[in-house]
UniProtKB/TrEMBL annotation:
Residues 21-68 form the F-box domain. Pfam families: F-box (PF00646), FBA_3 (PF08268). This is F-box family protein. PROSITE patterns: FBOX. SMART domains: FBOX. NCBIfam families: F_box_assoc_1 (TIGR01640). It comes from Arabidopsis lyrata subsp. lyrata.
Amino acid sequence: MASEKSFKKRKITDDVDGGGGGGLESLPGDIIADIFSRLPISSIARLMFVCRSWRSILTQHGRVSSSSSPTKPCLLLHCDSPIRNGLHFLDLSEEEKRIKTKKFTLRFESSMPEFDVVGSCNGLLCLSDSLYNDSLYLYNPFTTNSLELPECSNKYHDQELVFGFGFHEMTKDYKVLKIVYFRGSSSSNNGIYRGRGRIQYKQSEVQILTLSSKTTDQSLSWRSLGKAPYKFMKRSSEALVNGRLHFVTRPRRHVPDRKFVSFDLEDEEFKEIPKPDCGGLNRTNHRLVNLKGCLCAVVYGNYGKLDIWVMETYGVKESWGKEYSIGTYLPKGLKQNLDRPMWIWKNAENGKVVRVLCLLENGEILLEYKSRVLVAYDPKLGKFKDLLFHGLPNWFHTVVHVGTLSWVDTPLDLW
């Protein structure tokens, strides 16, 4: 009897490990890829720890990805709690009734308890230290791989930072962009002046860090690209489209016109992008987002109304068109906590009630209201639907994330 149990146990182990010709390794690669492409990324990440052979299959040759995609993404919920931040996630590729909020264990939280999310790209996050601005991490929340980036040799006091993070499909390089506005020591007034109640910096420097499969610890260092040609809004790059990061310039006293500016991750050059012919772009009531792989401008109106303009052909001004108009909506989750009129609601990041997150597979637009509620909007029917998930934090900033098993030295392409 004992020998029979031992035989059964050994047989099960052999099947899991691929022994005896009947395991996972015996299947053709395209079948393996098809099987795992139907699973949510959270399930695939757990399967990596079943045995060594499965981990090898899941990570080799970049041939396995998950059902997570730009239209069925993971939502990372950054909770900016006092003293210690948190990072939760929702996997929208799962069945809606099975979706639950889960919390990541952050390996770096002791060294960086409070952080900002610079950006999400090709399965990786770039995080910055929100307390001291002297630490940057790359992090894959599903494999728990993390990398602290080196400090830049050029440091400045009283600095203002603008970050960008992206992955170039052609070069297969990850790049972190840091734009530093700082006080200059050689000019009058120590290089700063006050305008409209805030300090404005006259000096600047653009720094960039490249990471790829060829990068070693010795070659991992920042490069200077010289002075920044524009003064950008103090927030991370807003959209990665066509291999380019996109920013919005800050208006100057005598030049109030705001510009859309791209940064090409391949040639590392800034270039102005034509804007749509719509009103309000010279004020702070707009943001740039990536919807369906296109550059989009979200133009905010009064009482939470907004229009979404889409650039169908990148770089062509005439291709801008208003594709969506979303009216005023008050989610049920906010009605019971309505402590101020809607017209003076403020979002901590952009001063608006609602943020446009992404376009879902069913054609609905995913929205975040006042960092409290997630809402799906159906543009065909003009209807709103509050999305209620178990364990959703009270306050959060949503980051759209396509989950993969990618890492810097083994980028896995999405299927």
